[in-house]
Design a protein that fits this description.
By secondary structure, the protein is of the alpha+beta class. It contains four helices and 17 strands.
Length: about 350
């Protein structure tokens, strides 16, 4: 794991005066995936592997029974899913000069940033698992990723909803009733669609889109949510990154994150559609499951640092995620309009 030392010269202090205002808050991407997962914990000293077990439904029994003849015994079928906990972490070093002389207290900043880094790491690990699902749809029903040229449409989500229904997938949210306020409309029990913030204009342009304001219930909006289309509610985060230049050649869609000067292979964005219990996340249970560790400069000298000139801030955690039912999660691959109208 790479380790970097922050020296006084790496952080330019303000010249002439001491800053009175606090550091500007760093805008953090919304951490969405942990909200919709089936969350499980492994107790300490119980190994690093977890198993989810799902019992499959019985087939309908339509044959009439013969008089006095018992039916054949039917077996119970199950599907097992396993995941292995992995440990993640990072460390940053601070010098005593930086700690003693810089007015912004770099130690406090490092602790805050390490905590944010840990949360974003867990989020990105989960997104990578969700993007690896095998139940894939392509915008406008093209054959594959290399043929994608269009943004998402209502027809795409109707196909996904049909697939969910055929596999008994259950919505993640309950009905939201309209209120007496003028212009409010209820929304039906819904699946969740997670997507990049880049796609917001295209999603708002989908036929039948309702903004969260139209829900009529202020408490119904989820973090990152912008609205709904029929049976899907959309929550956005910048962390749902595209596959750069993997689509077909087109001039009006983003390519490598920018508007192209002419026709070129467009970026392909994932929209992750979720039903209930589609995936699970696992954390190590206990006081030390996730923590930020701090060693201040000017304390605890040792043979490697006899003058205690260095301190460290670091974090570590255990985590894993797994798809539990491929038919209850779908990935729609689409393009993103370069110049929204």
């Amino acid at each position: 794991m790479a380790q970097f030392t922050v020296k006084f010269g790496d952080i330019s202090p303000r010249v002439g005066i001491k800053a009175v205002a606090k550091l500007l808050a760093v805008g953090q991407p919304l951490l969405l995936t942990q909200r919709f997962a089936q969350v499980d914990d492994i107790g300490t000293r119980q190994g690093n592997t977890i198993k989810w077990r799902r019992y499959l439904p019985f087939a309908v029994s339509t044959a009439p029974l013969a008089e006095g003849v018992p039916p054949s015994v039917q077996p119970m079928s199950k599907a097992d899913y396993t995941a292995v906990l992995q440990q993640y972490g990072a460390v940053v070093e601070l010098t005593d000069v930086c700690y003693d002389l810089h007015e912004d207290n770099p130690l406090d900043v490092a602790v805050t940033r390490c905590g944010e880094q840990m949360a974003q790491t867990i989020e990105l690990l989960t997104i990578d698992v969700l993007k690896s699902g095998t139940n894939v749809y392509y915008a406008s029903s093209v054959a594959n990723r290399a043929a994608v040229t269009n943004p998402p449409s209502r027809a795409d989500f109707r196909l996904i909803a049909r697939g969910f229904d055929r596999n008994d997938a259950q919505p993640l949210t309950k009905v939201v009733s309209p209120t007496a306020n003028v212009g409010t409309m209820g929304i039906e029990p819904a699946f969740i669609a997670l997507a990049s913030t880049d796609l917001e204009p295209d999603i708002r342009n989908i036929t039948g889109f309702k903004t969260t304001v139209e829900y009529g219930s202020p408490g119904a909006k989820m973090p990152g949510e912008i609205g709904a289309v029929e049976r899907f509610r959309f929550c956005l985060s910048r962390m749902f990154t595209p596959w750069a230049a993997q689509g077909a050649s087109v001039a009006t869609m983003l390519a490598n994150g920018i508007k192209p000067s002419g026709a070129t292979n467009c970026d392909v964005y994932p929209i992750i559609c979720l039903a209930r219990d589609a995936y699970g996340v696992v954390r190590l249970q206990g006081m030390k499951a996730a923590e930020v560790k701090v060693r201040q400069p000017n304390q605890n000298p040792d043979s490697g640092d006899p003058l205690a000139q260095k301190g460290t801030v670091g974090w570590k955690t255990y985590f894993t995620a797994a798809i539990l039912n491929e038919q209850w999660i779908a990935r729609l691959e689409c393009s993103c309009t370069a110049t929204p109208n």
